[in-house]
From TrEMBL:
It comes from the Eukaryota. This is NAD-dependent epimerase/dehydratase domain-containing protein. Transmembrane segments: none annotated. Residues 1-10 have a biased composition (Low complexity). It comes from Panicum virgatum. Residues 1-22 are annotated as: Disordered. Residues 77-260 form the NAD-dependent epimerase/dehydratase domain.
Length: 319
């Protein structure tokens, strides 16, 4: 006979809850150390993973770069304002002469197109790097010097319109004089001994005698010229100190105009700044018919010898 209780639901035993102490029997002295060591190891690995994931990127050690190493036979030059008109041409010549170049520019007046041209011309690793930064930020400047092994500095970065300086004098003193002081302090901290400073003929003011020579007194008459003259004085005072032991060259330009002979670089003045009297802006306006014509009274060619080291001299010709 078959069982008569087939249709009755079978009673299942109630589910049993397991406690952690029952799953891991710590009462067994042989098993206790093994389980404890596994728990401690898991906790340590978890803590390490959390720490690595929450660590800011700036605190992670970057891979070594050739720009951070002093390499025999290679001169590494920092070009501030290298996206600007004169700075980009100087960077081009440096790269053509096999220098290693780092350009720092905040692009407030510089042209990113000039950077792209240089990057396309010199794509080889270790030749050129661009850092967008403001020289008015001492921490950023110091970090740039700490992460790169510079042999020399060419300081071009500056606002550079006489008319604008009379409207915004404080901006010019900050941008030119104060920022130059930041660069000098970083050079002193990181033992960079060679500086080429881009100044201006505006430091001469209105001289009584022409032509202007190195002996012509400097009496600037506008905030732009005064800010540059102050920066010159700071540089010369510091270079003469025993602690500095610096090689310094100051360049004063007279109406720089023109472009790379092969047409790769040139000046791209912002339309809103043409009213401040740049010669190139007047040329563009005459060519476009905005003004009826342009009279040129004098053409000046300034040929500047730039000393980067005892063995390295190159020439920049500006028309």
């Amino acid at each position: 006979m078959l069982p008569t209780n087939r249709g009755r639901p079978q009673q299942r035993p109630p589910p049993r809850s397991w406690s952690f102490s029952e799953m891991v029997d710590f009462s067994d002295p042989k098993r206790r150390p093994r389980h404890l060591s596994k728990l401690v190891m898991a906790a340590l690995l978890t803590a390490m993973c959390v720490l690595m994931l929450t660590q800011p990127p700036c605190h992670r050690r970057p891979a070594p770069s050739v720009f951070s190493i002093h390499q025999p036979g290679v001169t590494h030059v920092l070009v501030t304002g290298g996206a600007g008109y004169i700075g980009s041409h100087a960077a081009l010549r440096l790269l053509k002469d096999s220098f290693r170049v780092t350009i720092v520019d905040n692009l407030s007046r510089g042209n990113i197109g000039a950077i792209k041209v240089l990057q396309n011309l010199f794509p080889e690793p270790g030749r050129l790097q661009f850092i967008q930064a403001d020289l008015g930020d001492p921490k950023a400047v110091n970090r740039i010097f700490a992460e790169n092994a510079f042999d020399a500095v060419m300081h071009f970065a500056a606002v550079a319109y006489v008319g604008e300086s009379t409207l915004e004098p404080l901006r010019y003193y900050h941008n030119i004089t104060a920022n130059t002081l930041v660069v000098l302090e970083a050079m002193a901290t990181h033992n960079v001994k060679t500086l080429i400073y881009s100044s201006t003929c505006a430091t001469y003011g209105e001289p009584e005698k022409m032509p202007i020579t190195e002996e012509t007194p400097q009496f600037p008459i506008n905030p732009y010229g005064k800010a540059k003259k102050m920066a010159e004085d700071i540089i010369l005072d510091f270079s003469k100190s025993k602690k500095a032991d610096m090689a310094v060259m100051i360049l004063r330009y007279f109406n720089v105009i023109g472009s790379d002979p092969e047409g790769r670089l040139g000046e791209a003045p912002r339309p809103e700044l043409r009213e401040h009297g740049r010669i190139s802006g007047a040329c563009f306006d005459a060519a476009l018919g905005i003004i009826p014509g342009l009279k040129v009274r004098l053409t000046i060619a300034v040929c500047c010898a730039i000393l980067l080291s005892e063995r390295s001299i190159f020439w920049l010709l500006f028309f």
